[in-house]
């Protein structure tokens, strides 16, 4: 029975990682550069605010699933932090940093971006979007490192 829960937890955990990190990769490496080259700031900023609004809802789902499944695997399956490899400790540390950065984005620059777009203050909106982009870029790097640790860490 415990194996069945582990299979479900691992699958949900992996899907949540794909949604969050894959979404950041797509937004940072594909969507944003194309949008920046094709659209003028007012339209670009409106588009990005709406795209981020939808994406961030999925990130909340992913973050909640990652924490629930990750903590269950650590304590429900492995019996606590003392029983897991160093790679799990690294992943958990990176998860804390990534989650805090996401929470910061969601509650500080993102509402400011939406407010600036709604009042058509596109200069300020651009500053908020640039801040979000830089943090997402850093979070993407942390996420990719986490995937490397998760996949290769078993062998360390």
Describe the structure.
This protein has one domain (2-155). It has five helices and no strands. The model has no long low-confidence stretch (mean pLDDT 97). With 156 residues, it is mostly helical. The longest helix is centred in the N-terminal third of the chain and has 37 residues, at 2-38. The radius of gyration is 18 Å and the shape is elongated.
SSE arrangement:
Elements: H1 2-38, H2 41-77, H3 86-107, H4 109-118, H5 122-152
Helix pairs in contact: 1-2, 1-5, 2-3, 2-4, 2-5, 3-5, 4-5
Task: Provide a compact summary of the structure.
The chain is 88% helix and 0% strand. The chain is mainly alpha-helical and 156 residues long.
Q: What best-fitting shape do the alpha-carbon axes yield? A: elongated
Structural class: mainly alpha
Q: Helix coverage percent of residues?
A: over 70%
Instruction: Tally the helices.
Output: 5
Spans of 5+ residues with little confidence (pLDDT < 50)?
none
Q: How many structural units, i.e. domains?
A: 1
Query: What does the average pLDDT come to?
Result: 97
Q: Give the N-terminus to C-terminus distance in angstroms.
A: 29 Å
Largest sheet: none
Encode the helix/strand succession as letters: HHHHH
User: How many DSSP E strands?
Assistant: 0
Defining traits:
156 residues; mainly alpha; 5 helices; 0% strand; elongated
């Amino acid at each position: 029975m415990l194996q069945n829960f582990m299979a479900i937890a691992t699958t949900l955990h992996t899907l949540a990682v794909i949604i969050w990190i894959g979404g950041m990769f797509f937004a940072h490496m594909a969507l944003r550069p194309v949008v920046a080259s094709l659209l003028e700031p007012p339209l670009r900023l409106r588009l990005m605010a709406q795209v981020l609004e939808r994406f961030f809802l999925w990130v909340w789902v992913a973050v909640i699933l990652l924490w629930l499944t990750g903590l269950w695997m650590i304590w429900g399956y492995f019996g606590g932090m003392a029983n897991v490899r160093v790679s799990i400790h690294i992943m958990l540390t990176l998860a804390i940093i990534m989650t805090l950065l996401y929470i910061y984005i969601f509650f500080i620059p993102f509402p400011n971006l939406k407010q600036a777009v709604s009042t058509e203050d596109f200069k300020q909106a651009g500053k908020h979007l640039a801040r979000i982009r830089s943090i997402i870029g850093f979070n993407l790097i942390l996420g990719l490192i986490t995937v490397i640790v998760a996949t290769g860490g078993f062998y360390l």
